[in-house]
Amino acid sequence: MSGRLRASIVVIGDEILSGHVRDANSGWLAERLQAHGVPLDRVATVPDDEAAIGEHLDLELARSRPRVLLTSGGIGSTPDDRTLPAIASFLGRALMPEPSLDAAVTQRLDERAAAGRALDPAHAAALRSMALVPEGASLIGAGGFSSAVAVDLAGGSDATEGATIVVLPGIPGELQRITREAVEPELLAGRGQPVHTEELTHPFPESLLTPTLARLTEQHPGLHVGSYPGSEVVVRLSGPREEVTAAMDEVRAAVAALAAEPQAREQAASWAAYWEHGP
Questions:
Q1: Do β-strands 196-202 and 6-12 pair in parallel, antiparallel, or remain unpaired?
Q2: Cα separation of 14 and 11, whole Å?
Q3: Is the pLDDT of residue 46 over 50?
Q4: Which residues of 230-251 are buried (b: 16+ CB within 10 A; e: fewer)?
Q5: What is the pTM of this model?
Q6: Distances from the Cα of 61 to the Cα of 26, 91, 147, 153, 179, angstroms
Q7: How far from chain centre, in Å, is Cα 161?
């Protein structure tokens, strides 16, 4: 095994960019990557266009390696499903039938014919196209349509300078099942450095804690410090456990000090009213 794995996500689909469908996949994948301690560097959303897909493949694969690049969407049998052809074109590889996928298509066609519902040649050809993958690609998972298509570059994500493109469906339920059953155990498990995270909520305007959080950021460069406003502000610290624990103790002390100040309590009341009624 090589160094710490990093990840990118490319979400593919005109329907996402048009607002007709909300992306439910990138956030879920980000959570799973976080659970394995694999840093996610970027999420990009691109149209069903080969040039656009290739452009973002190039951008993400140029980032530090080893890397896994997860794509979602654009792998059906309709003309707008351009992910696999775009990857093949980007890599300069031919599209070839993958045996397991081709067998799954054949089984589906045979079952329909046996039931007296045979597809016409054009429809059958469209379905058969779903078995085409970039030359050299493999499947991750049980085989057939229950798998993810994986394309290794420079030895794959196990190699220091390698990367693996993982092609996942856009349907959230299918993407999640394949990721849990195949991608996580085969590509992610044991490759990251799980990060310790602690949260604290407080009722004060978030600017009142800015000096404390700024100081913690300077004192602990390896600590991720986040503040997220709402009716109650969430402070989230992530990093090595000992640093997070010590830093969160300082945040708690700062919040306790604010709670003891009458002026800060008045500001908390104004903050709550703002979120309840608006400006």
A1: unpaired
A2: 10
A3: yes
A4: eeebebbbbbeeebbeebbeeb
A5: 0.83
A6: 18, 11, 22, 9, 20
A7: 21
59 and 87 fall within a common domain: yes
Looking up residue 129, the CATH number of its domain turns out to be: 3.40.980.10
pLDDT of 40 > 90? The answer is yes
Give dist(CA 167, CA 75) in Å, integer: 8
In a domain, 67, yes or no: yes
Average pLDDT over residues 142-171: 92
Q: Are residues 64 and 102 in the same domain?
A: yes
Together in a domain, 177 and 210: no
Among the candidates 121, 156, 188, a domain finishes at 188
pLDDT band at 65 (very low <50, low <70, confident <90, very high): very high
In a domain, 203, yes or no: yes
Is 1 a domain residue?
no
Q: How far, in Å, CA of 240 to CA of 81, rounded?
A: 42
Q: Read off the pLDDT of residues 194-213 as tens digits, 9 standing for 90 and up.
A: 889 999 999 999 999 999 99
> What are the Cα distances from residue 77, in Å, to 105, 135, 248?
11, 18, 51
